[in-house]
Amino acid sequence: MKQEFKVIADLLPNNTRVLDVGCGDGSLMNFLVKEKNIETRGLELDQNNVQECIYKGLTVIQGNAETELYQFPDQSFDYVVLSQTLQAFYKPDKVLNELLRIGKSVIVSIPNFGYWKVRTSLLLFGKMPITKTLPNTWFNTPNLHMCTIKDLYNYCEHQNINIKKVIGVNESNTSYIKRSNLEIKNLFSKLGIFLIG
Amino acid sequence: MPSLAGLFFWMNRKIENINKITVTKPLKLDCGKTIKDFPLAYETYGKLNEKKDNAILVFHALTGDQFVAGTNPVTKKDGWWVTAVGPNKAIDTNKYFVICANVIGGCMGSLGPSDINKETNQPYGLDFPVITIKDIVRAQESLLDHLGIKKLLCATGGSMGGMQLLQFCATFPEKTFSAIPIACSSSHSAQNIALNELARQAIMADPVWDNGKYFLKNTQPKNGLAVARMVGHISYLSEQGMQEKFGRKLQEKADYEFSFNADFQVESYLRHQGSSFVERFDANSILYITRAMDYFDLTKQYKGGLVEAFKNQSTKFLVISFSSDWLYTTKENKDIVIALNASGADVSYSEIVTDKGHDSFLLNEPEFLKTLKGFIDSMYEKFKNETGI
Fold it and tell me: ipTM, 2 decimals?
């Protein structure tokens, strides 16, 4: 399982109820069910991924998170997970509100546009960055609203969303991010994982 | 139009040698009348294992019957769901024990309007009580007792079969471990009621129908029944699917005949579907079963709404819809998912992308069949673990 999922799994207590939004082929859910006795539900757009989840015996609803989160009742999950998709929505702020409505807590991960390689690509070469976490070119990227760890941190504070934990991930290294080290972590983290709500 | 031989066949079908139980427990119908000691015809495929944990109950659609797989012994044609059920199929009868009962109101051995009314010694005709989906489902409960099955591994059905399944889960919440409602609805829409009304009016406008008393003359309102079937067939296809299959192609001719014969292939197809149908189905049964569908409204039944209907469900659901189905739309199927979610039930959902319309559930749709198989197989593993076997 990829490093990001390990970090997310560590944030989730055993025996809880988790909604994985954009659950892909269900690898995170499968781990949570088997290793942590977590009751999971997934929401996934892609037909093949939905099938994969069903084969694994996982509960998954085929649908679009941008438009179909309304079907989940208020506070019906202990945690809602959204992995590296926030930036791909037309209205990420509305989606974030929906996640906070459905989950008592929310875990959101974002590819960090503040990572130094991303910054240098634009600054030195004048080109849109292509990295491991941002593999697409400008014309075919699904990402509509790129942001940095700092942006999301500021946004949460501004919206009075309670920030419980922020973790920066760079390959196998992880570290906690606070207001005090935000500038430096924003430069060296490829990924930011936020536990909010 | 049907041949005389075909009509002869309908009247003299050998339906004595099919499996039947007599339901002795009185069943109080929604209309207020009570039926008892009535026949319920069924068929099974595969073997029930010792632990009785491999049983799958299939509910059939409007014009279906209990002959799901293999060859239908009455019509000598393939069972209606051979694409999905049989040895090594998605619902593998080498592994699972598949059960299907003929609905009451039908005409393949279960109590229906063509049966003899013991009070008059004549077929019921319109003296048959108006039945509901709930009546149909409750009539089938005795069959599970008869077969000694406490809890099904899975129950499934498409179209009206899916509606029976939803009713089954609401009425008997502990009877099945998992459920797959396919291309159905929790309440019949205005459009579907309208189409059913069209079918009924076609039958009733046929003078042979004679207020449902055609059996006295040993005949069938075959013209009306054929038109009713044509209406159905149009609604089972999609606009795109129909265009691709038939387009404006002519039926074995180079140009228009300047007549009202079946010039177009699509006309010929509908006429064939209509005429072959009258050889295997009873017109009054269509009236009764379509009425049961129209009356189906789980929301009304459970005054708190659909969420209330699915309260306390431990059944694991997989709802499946087809993108080009305009009879039981994705939206209607999603409403079921939303209600199940709101009631806290365990529900998966998949929309199969296809241009084959409502009929898709009966066809060889690989993505659909793969999803069906994946779900049932994974549920079997879970069910075995849960029952500690």
Answer: 0.90
Q: Are the C-beta atoms of B96 and B69 separated by less than 8 Å?
A: no
Residue B188 a catalytic site member = no
Whether the CB-CB separation of A31 and A1 falls below 8 Å is answered with yes
Q: Where are the alpha helices (DSSP H) in chain B?
A: 4-11, 133-139, 141-147, 160-171, 190-204, 222-236, 239-245, 265-277, 283-295, 298-301, 306-309, 330-342, 366-386
One-letter amino acid for residue B387 of the chain: T
Mean pLDDT of A116-120: 94
Q: Quote the CA–CA distance of B326 and B239 in Å, as a whole number.
A: 9
Compute how many other C-beta atoms are within 10 angstroms of the C-beta atom of residue A17: 16
**Among the ranges given (A171-185, B91-105, B375-389), the one the predictor scored with the smallest mean pLDDT:** B375-389
DSSP helix/strand/coil, B382: helix
Which of these is catalytic: B60, B188, B233, B358? B358
| Closest by CA position to B157, among listed B90, B55, B290, B58 | B58
Bridge partner residues of A107 (DSSP): A81, A195
CA distance B275 to B251: 17
Structural domains in chain A?
3-113+146-196 (3.40.50.150)
Task: Categorize the per-residue pLDDT at B13 as very low, low, confident or very high, splitting at 50, 70 and 90.
Answer: low
Closest approach of chain A CAs to the CA of B304, in angstroms? 16
Distances, alpha carbon A34 to alpha carbons A15, A29, A38, in Å? 11, 9, 8
Q: How far apart are CA A79 and CA A97, in angstroms?
A: 14
Note whether B374 and B91 are within 8 A (CB): no
pTM given for the model:
0.94
Residue of B36, B21, B29 whose CA lies nearest to B137: B29
| Shortest distance, CA B175 to any CA of chain A (angstroms) | 20
How far apart are the C-alpha atoms of B63 and B73, rounded to whole Å? 16
Q: Which residues pair with B264 in a beta bridge?
A: B250
Instruction: Identify which of A54, A62, A71 has the shortest CB distance to residue B351.
Output: A62
Mean pLDDT of chain B: 94
- Catalytic-role residue among B53, B65, B325, B359: B325
Q: Using alpha carbons only, how large is chain A's radius of gyration in Å?
A: 16
User: Does the pLDDT of residue A65 top 70, yes or no?
Assistant: yes
Residue B113: CA count within 13 A, CB half-sphere: 24
Q: How many CB pairs under 8 A join A and B?
A: 55
The least confident of A98-107, A142-151, B302-311 is B302-311
Strand partners, B154: B56, B178
The least confident of A128-132, B151-155, B232-236, B292-296 is: A128-132
Helix (H, G, I), strand (E, B) or coil at B282: coil
Coil vs helix vs strand at B298: helix
B358 included as an active-site residue: yes
Domain B4-386 carries which CATH code?
Answer: 3.40.50.1820
Asked if pLDDT for residue A77 goes beyond 90, the answer is yes
Which of B342, B349, B352 minimises the CB distance to A73? B342
Known active-site residue B325: yes
pLDDT given for residue B15 in this prediction: 62
- What are the residues facing A81 on neighbouring strands? A20, A107
In whole numbers, what is the pLDDT of chain A averaged over residues?
95
* pLDDT above 70: residue B305: yes
Copy the structure tokens of residue A116.
């130094």
